[in-house]
Give the backbone structure.
Amino acid sequence: MTVRVRFAPSPTGYLHIGGARTALYNYLYAKAVGGTFVLRIEDTDLERSNAEYEKLQIDDLKWMGIVHDEGPDKPNPKYAPYRQSERTEIYQKYALQLVDKGLAYYDFCTEEELEAMKAKTEAEGGDPHYTGKWREAAHWEEAKARVAKGEKTAIRFKAPKKSYTLKDKVKGSVTYPDNMVGDFVIVRSNGQPVYNFCCVVDDHLMDITHVIRGEDHLNNTVRQLMIYEALGAKLPEFAHVSLLIGHDRQKLSKRHGATSVNLYRNEHYLPEAMCNYLCLLGWSHPAERDIFDKSDLYEVFTLDRFSASSAMYDLEKLKWVNSEHVKKMSNADLISLVEKEPETEFFNKQTPEWKNACVELLKKYAQFIPDFPKLVNEMILNEHPHMTDALKEILSWETTPKILSFLAAEIDKVQTTFVTEAELNAWTEFVKKDLAVKGKPLFQGVRGCLTGHDHGPDLKFLIPLTPVSVLKNRMLDLSK
Ligand code: GLU
């Protein structure tokens, strides 16, 4: 069996992180088993859908490296078109087949009648299900005759009065009791088919073998099981992945902060970090790894490692994952990303060796790519040390002015743009031996004079990256 999975977004807004996670799981599963990943656009809600959102969502997926094998822009003639708005006739044809078989019927009830029906059944303590006369076969000839004369009306599916059991890959066995849903509309009176119907017709016609989607669709699934049965279509495997929740354990929504992929993209998160973190929300690596690339999962992704309980969305963890991806990136890749950042004139002018040593040093401190130019400014180019209490204390030691005037004199003699590690070692040795400073006053003193900080990266890496002109001005500032 060739596996075919799909991601079926509705283009009614930006790509949501929950949607991106669903897309990722489908993509990974297709990759893992050599299947096909289909992108289907569910734009049956014509008022809320728009082509711009479709474009933006596809663009965000592409940014994350979640690339589809088939979709509106990559049609397989056997299955096209891939936008539901272009498939209306297909759904109408299938709906009519169900009417012909007596599995669905034309419903001529007015809105008022439907309201009254609901109020009555509720008042009697029953289920608020459709009880109109049109569900009875006795009225079907009359209904068909009215439609033949050109009257427009909804088509309603006759929900079988029996329970359904779903064998879900994540949720296990889910039983829907026989009174859970009543007859439901599959095509509206304006000819517009509804989601639950389109989805099944499409999954069936597109030979979808596995439906991996959010748990919020579980309530739809019972209606969909009924439609599969009515169409005589083979059921796909279902995997309803757990909900994303915020710290308050409520379903993740805008009030928990950024929920669209686009915002994270603008905030400079790395696409691989987004994939890594979203993947971990409800799925675990067989070797319990926390940090990985998508491509590391092609060999190991399976549908049996989903967690059935809700996954807590934690921005701090996402930031941490991002910083781990910064650390594991090659220096060459880091350099090319940093070079594209604004305010990197100084960085961009340096030699490849300098750039390499710089990113190697700063990646320990950077969470995001734009942190690099900031760190260069703070740690390397800052000529005016910020007078912290810790720095004041260092400067107040009696040994520090001696170190400062020695280093300032040495720096004045330097003819090159940067000092070497050997020069730095020689200076430290001199301070130790000739000036007879040792321990904390030695190390903190040298650090304070050269960097204007009481702590920071190893001087043997930092100082050879700092221009001599900056060191001079810094020490001038400290001597004032
Ligand atoms: N269009 C649905 C949504 O955006 C997806 C439904 C499905 O995956 O079956 O939630």
